[in-house]
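Quick one:
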Amino acid sequence: MLFRNIIFSGLRTIVPFLSLSLLSHSLSRDFLGSYAAMLSFAAWIFLIVEFGTNISAPRLANEGSLNNISALVFSVKFLTSIIVMIFGLVFALFSSFPADTIFYGIILGIAQGFIPTWFYIYKDRLHIIIMADFVVQISILLISFFISIEVIDIKFLIPLYVVLFSLYSLIANYTVFLENGFKRSDFIMSEVFRFSYDSRGLILNRIVISLYTALNSFIVYVLLGASAAAVFSNSEKLCKAINVVNDTGVKSYYGKLIKISEWEKKKYLVTRLGFILLFLNLLYVIILRVFGSPIVDLLFGQQYDEVKRVITVYSLVMIPISIMYALGSFWLNSIGREDVITVSILVSVAIGIPFILFFGMRFGVIGYALGVVMLESLNLLIMSIQTVRSGLWPFKFSIR
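Output:
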């Protein structure tokens, strides 16, 4: 199941790179930087709207009525979407950032946040979501191709991107409704507020993570300009392409992990996934360091030579990230200890964000990348210390 999903996800990753390659060769760095900033802003909105339900909802569904959980998740996402839209309106009024970019970022983030991935994780049918996303990415590739040969005007790129994901979200939710269904009586406002309160640690976790992950390209855009944002975005996408393996590994096994009651069997599964992710990420880092230069030339062209220098530093971030996927996203979330993750992130962000901003303003994009590597390494160190001190360390040194 894991390797099948990873193969599908790999295909889903290759296609966006083909789209990015076409756009990098045909668009100016300034326009691509603005496009990257919009996607970065949308990723932050997604994390708010999704509200951690891809982690919490499968756990709750395993304990109670699936119908009620479906209604609960929909209600929470609806409320967070209203809050996000109000925030977006205020941000657009008092920010110098282009209003249309904010608007499209909000709509895209809400659409992606409403995709019911949690349902397919619980049902062990994650491949359906992966394949549906693959179809959307193929559509975006075709749009990028037609833009590159000037059949479609560049101004339609972002609106079409938003429309595609909005349709995908609507269809995905409709299929869940047909299979699972829920009535008006399932919408209990007191349950929504209780769920929101119980998830406060998880959503705080999401918000803090988003400040230095989802918003990276957006922050670089604000600090260093659109051209620098394009360089950083391309570097980040190339280095974090392996994240599709990390994310798919966690989602593929998460539904199984929460249904295991034996502590030792849980730890065995976490250790197994941890070793797999660490090995694959180390291999990917080596590939980037050896073949990064020709890969960048092929994908982005000579106007992105700076990406070659940035990825030599930024690729190292995948080593701590791969371990944190297994330790945090997989293990601690499955046992309801999001507080450990949140504390480690808050401390590392408080220490690391000033360094990121300083290095970014002092050394440009490569300095910002170095700051992110330092922050993620610090995050892993603090999370590991907390986990060991709490008696929750899951990894074994041998795998049967």
